[in-house]
Amino acid sequence: MSRLFARTPLLIEGQGLEGSARARAMFAVALSVLLSVLDYAIANVALPTIADDLHADRAASIWVVNAYQMASVMALLPLASLGARVGFARMCQIGIGVFVVASVWCATAHSLLEISLARALQGIGGACIMSVNIALVRFIYPHAAIGRGIAINGIVVAAGVALGPTIAALVLYVARWPWIFLINLPLGAVALFFAVTTLPRTPRVETPFDWRSAALNVVAFSGVIVGIDSLAHQAGAAQASALIVVGAVALAALVLRQRGRPNPMFPVDLLGVPDFVVAFLVGMMGFIASNFFIISMPFTLQSLFGRTPSQTGLLITPWPVGIVLISPLVGRIADRVPASVVSSCGLLVTSFGFLMLSLLPADATTLDIIWRIGIAGMGFGIFQAPNNRAMMVAAPRGRAGSASGMVSVARLMGQTLGAMLVALTFAFVAQQANRRCLEFASVTALLAAILSATRLRRRAAH
């Protein structure tokens, strides 16, 4: 193992790898990210089948999905901090190993509780990967080409989302649901081989890991997220409020504990950098908007437009396809044109696409639906990579790990809050809740574009 690591020299941030070494290292990152994203998308599609086979209530079976996402959100920042201490490459390798072991556990689970616990472990493995993946890109690519690497990362995420439903359908057609987890074994083996042999060694932070802050981080995120989710699903206002209060108190204690510390786990130093904060908020709002669309659109297509479940899956495909098609172009301009311009334009296009969808008549043709979703997807692809690059570039040298973790936190928090807001909309908006979700998606993307554009004024002032 040590000989394999010795093949790659210790890199300085911004130096980057060259030629085939860069391509192989980026391939390792891409495979690792695909492993994490693909399985999340596959499990969503297989959820009804899993619930039926385990004789579980369909509402309770949502924990097969929630356990993964919640574990990822709670673990991201502590794992990003730990990754800065053990090495970003080593953290990615650990994540792949944990993910593969958890996949075997998922496949052999015999109850809803067991598979939910296994999915939580999978979420931790995925968080190991996602907490350091963009930090690794920052070392794999030279400073002037970081945007290209981040765009490739975005393509992989979109491809995983696009391929997930198709792969799940194929697997479930020829085999039982445990195989949707067992297919992770060969992919994980290849990803681990390339991660061990090609990822660069990076400088490590020497300060001890702060376990108390890690515990506060878990309590803060779990309390706030579970509390808001309980309110969204009307599961008891008193209990939900208590959870939110506990989470908020833990978050306040975490912030106070982290202030003034070198390399803080909760990045209070990064949250003091205006460009970083704006990019973080823009990223989170972008994913809130996308989840307003992604979660509500299947219901809209079936209940409002009369499409079948199989047609619904195909009709949503233009969203990730649009992201994949536009990402290579965005990768070439992300390092040359400011995110304040590119991301703002992308969010405006996304907002326009969502608005056009909300205005569709009930007798809309398939082509009418497809081109609007495709436009929204292309806009999202234009926005994402430059904004992520802005977050990474705004972080001071030596803080790549925390910045990478916050990029994933922005995505996961946006997705989580978006899902909760959809639930609230369905619960409290009696008339045309599906259209209201698309309108909210458009407005949220528009507000994110306006916030993104404020960076133009700050850039001109400097």
Automatic annotation (TrEMBL):
Membrane topology term:
Multi-pass membrane protein
InterPro entries hit by this protein: MFS (IPR011701), MFS_dom (IPR020846), MFS_trans_sf (IPR036259)
Where is coiled-coil annotated? Answer: none
Work out whether the entry's keyword set contains Transmembrane helix: yes
**Mostly located where?**
membrane
Q: Where in the cell is it found?
A: Membrane
Q: Name one GO molecular function term.
A: transmembrane transporter activity
**What Pfam families does the entry give?**
MFS_1
Query: Which PROSITE patterns does this entry report, sorted A to Z?
Result: MFS (PS50850)
Give the transmembrane region(s): 21-42, 62-82, 94-113, 119-141, 150-173, 179-199, 211-232, 238-256, 276-299, 311-330, 337-357, 369-387, 408-428, 440-456
**Presence of the UniProt keyword Nucleus in the record:** no
One Gene Ontology term, aspect cellular component: membrane
Q: Where is the Major facilitator superfamily (MFS) profile domain?
A: 25-460
Gene3D superfamilies, alphabetized: MFS general substrate transporter like domains (1.20.1250.20), Multidrug resistance protein D (1.20.1720.10)
Alphabetized, the UniProt keywords read: Membrane, Transmembrane, Transmembrane helix, Transport
Q: Can you name this protein?
A: MFS transporter
Please tell me the species this chain comes from.
Ameyamaea chiangmaiensis
Provide the taxonomic classification. Bacteria, Pseudomonadati, Pseudomonadota, Alphaproteobacteria, Acetobacterales
